[in-house]
């Protein structure tokens, strides 16, 4: 058993480990159904990678001495970004199947000789301290313990979508993680069953005849698989924090007319007998919208992020500005609920381009939008009835409003 005098290595530094219970987090999968083309454990949840939430839950628990993550060999850069700031053991590469990854992770912990290990899926980021407690405490009386939820729904067995039978649900549970074990016993079981393809570590233990006790899990401890699961997880985090932090901010911009044969408005080239003067492409609409988004998180204005005195922004597509602002919101754990844009000018006419503008803004903001509802993007146009500089057709103005929601910190 590992005592207080034992330790672990971070490079050349020896760090004392006070607890004999370790956590092994399995993050070697390649599932991308959550969207973005990135494995789900590295998708963002409230501004952090899903893996960050999972690892932090165990690292912050006082009964866990150390945490190691098993990763895909190609994911080291993603792992480093996801776990920045967490005090973890160095990651180890996984295998072709989850069972292989767990066995390799257990082998890597053998040098520390922990008494117990909790094995957890990285894609379950909402594991609570109370559930970790229950799993560890159960290991005081049995060599295996798994989080699970008793089935409440009636089960049907189907045959070509026709009901073939009703399956009694008595005694049936949905397995979750963490799954905890006496370390030496589960390592021996994985070694003995390495040639089999078993669905979870409890099944490996069962095949070895190891008693495994069911621990009351939680409906919040679900696995992230799809984009809907990410949205559900954000809602759980918001509920735990006492509700969403909803914010609204506005933006305003003006550009004067100059030589040219088109103007950029809301990311769309619009034919006109003049152009707009500006350091970038002078897209007055996207500039106003960028300022509105920056305002929701108190991130200053567009000029602070893209100074007009900096020649690198000369003539640049203003879509980059808007995507930068949206990215900052995502990093803060936010999502955009709605944006509203009003373009103010006598000419050119905006109406024929409105649908294209809405589509372009939706495309640029898609990674940050709460969903794909088309009504979340509003583009309007008005005149000043011949009054002022816009009435005199000297330029175009735009005003914007944006509403976002954040998980409270």
Can you walk me through this structure?
- With 409 residues, this protein is of the alpha/beta class.
- The protein has two domains: 7-232, Alpha-Beta Complex (Spore Coat Polysaccharide Biosynthesis Protein SpsA, Chain A); 245-406, 60s Ribosomal Protein L30, Chain: A (2-Layer Sandwich), CATH 3.30.1330.50.
- It is built from twelve helices and 20 strands.
- It has helices at 50-59, 76-82, 98-109, 129-138, 183-192, 201-207, 227-240, 284-296, 302-305, 319-331, 354-365, 388-391, and strands at 7-10, 13-16, 21-27, 44-45, 48-49, 66-71, 92-93, 116-121, 144-150, 155-159, 162-167, 173-182, 212-216, 245-258, 262-265, 268-271, 275-276, 334-344, 377-382, 395-406.
- Strands 7-6-3-8-12-9-13 form a seven-stranded mixed beta sheet, with helices on both faces. Strands 17-14-20-18-19 form a five-stranded mixed beta sheet.
- β10 (155-159) and β11 form a beta hairpin.
- α3 crosses α5 (183-192), α5 crosses α6 (201-207) and α8 (284-296) packs parallel to α10.
- The radius of gyration is 27 Å and the shape is elongated.
- The model is unreliable at 1-16 (pLDDT under 50).
Sheet with the most strands?
A: 7 strands, mixed
Percent range of helical residues: 25-40%
| Count of helical stretches | 12
Global shape: elongated
Give the integer mean of the pLDDT values. 92
CATH superfamily of the largest domain: Spore Coat Polysaccharide Biosynthesis Protein SpsA, Chain A
Distance between the termini: 38 Å
Spatially, the strands of the biggest sheet line up as: 7-6-3-8-12-9-13
What is the strand content? Answer: 25-35%
Question: Radius of gyration in whole Å, from Cα?
Answer: 27 Å
């Amino acid at each position: 058993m590992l005592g207080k005098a034992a330790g672990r290595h971070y490079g050349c530094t020896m760090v004392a480990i006070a607890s004999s219970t370790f956590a092994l987090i399995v993050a070697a999968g390649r599932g991308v159904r959550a969207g973005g083309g990135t494995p789900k454990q590295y998708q963002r949840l409230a501004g952090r990678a899903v893996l960050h939430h999972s690892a932090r839950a165990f690292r912050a628990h006082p009964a866990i001495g150390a945490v190691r993550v098993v990763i895909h060999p190609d994911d080291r850069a993603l792992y480093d970004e996801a776990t920045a700031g967490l005090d973890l053991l160095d990651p180890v590469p996984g295998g072709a199947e989850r069972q292989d990854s767990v066995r390799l992770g257990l082998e890597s912990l053998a040098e520390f000789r922990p008494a117990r290990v909790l094995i957890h899926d990285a894609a379950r980021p909402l594991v609570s301290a109370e559930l970790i407690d229950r799993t560890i405490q159960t290991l005081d009386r049995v060599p295996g313990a798994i989080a699970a939820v008793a089935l409440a729904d009636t089960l049907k067995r189907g045959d070509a979508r026709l009901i073939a039978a009703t399956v009694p649900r008595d005694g049936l549970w949905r397995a979750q993680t963490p799954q905890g074990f006496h370390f030496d016993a589960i390592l021996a079981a994985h070694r003995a069953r390495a040639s089999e393809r078993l669905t979870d570590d409890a099944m490996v233990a069962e095949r070895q005849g190891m008693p495994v006790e069911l621990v009351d899990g939680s409906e919040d401890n679900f696995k992230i698989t799809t984009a809907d699961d990410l949205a559900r997880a954000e809602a759980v985090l918001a509920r735990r924090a006492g509700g969403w932090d909803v914010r609204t901010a506005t933006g305003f911009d003006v550009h004067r007319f100059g030589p040219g044969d088109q103007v950029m408005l809301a990311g769309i080239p619009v034919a006109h007998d003049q152009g707009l003067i500006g350091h970038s492409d002078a897209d007055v609409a996207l500039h106003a919208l960028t300022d509105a988004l920056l305002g929701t998180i108190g991130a200053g204005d567009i000029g602070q992020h893209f100074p007009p005195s900096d020649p690198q922004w000369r003539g640049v597509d203003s879509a980059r500005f808007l995507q930068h602002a949206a990215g900052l919101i995502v990093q803060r754990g936010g999502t955009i609920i709605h944006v509203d844009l009003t373009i103010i000018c006598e000419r050119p006419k905006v109406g024929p381009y409105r649908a294209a503008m809405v589509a372009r803004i939706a495309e640029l903001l898609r990674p940050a939008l709460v969903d794909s509802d088309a009504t979340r993007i509003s583009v309007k146009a008005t005149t000043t009835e011949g009054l002022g500089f816009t009435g005199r057709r000297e330029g175009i103005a735009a005003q914007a409003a944006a509403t976002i929601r954040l998980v409270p910190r």
